[in-house]
Amino acid sequence: MEGAKTAAANESDDEDDDEELPPAPKASFSPSQIAMELTCMDWEYFRAISPLEFVGQAWNKASKDVVAPNVVAWTQWFNKVRKWVGWRGRRCCWYTT
Question: Which phi and psi angles does 3 have, rounded to 5°?
Fold first, then answer.
């Protein structure tokens, strides 16, 4: 990943929440493995965020894509992960003890 700024350009708006989700993985992964991977992916977004993107809640402004592109990209990423986790949790169990 080249950084969250690139991801901001590639991420779609929240209106695309109804898009097809990727298929469940064939292999089983432990919850800690999944958490570790998601944490590493989140870090790519977090490290790209400039402190100036938080000034005056810039991510809530009409110009949010210009003044807070990395916060917007992370928010979109978070919403996709949240949806994926909820969707997968209802439809399958890919880890059993």
Answer: 120, 165
Tell me how long the chain is: 97
pTM of the model: 0.59
What percent helix, strand, coil does the chain show, rounded to 5?
A: 70, 0, 30
Side-chain-side CA neighbours of residue 42 (13 Å):
12
Q: How confident is the model at residue 15 (pLDDT cuts 50, 70, 90)?
A: very low
Position 59 in a domain: yes
Q: How many CA atoms lie within 13 A of 69 on its CB side?
A: 11
Structural domain contains residue 67: yes
